[in-house]
Amino acid sequence: QVQLVESGGGSVQSGGSLRLSCAASIDTVNYNRMGWFRQAPGTDREWVGSITSRGTTIYVDSVEGRFIISRDNAKNTVYLQMNSLKPEDTGMYYCAAVCRVTPCSRWADFTYWGQGTQVTVSE
Question: Which long-range contacts (CB under 8 A, 24 or more apart) does 46-55 make?
Answer without folding.
Answer: 46/91, 47/105, 47/106, 47/107, 48/80, 48/93, 49/80, 50/99, 50/104, 50/105, 51/78
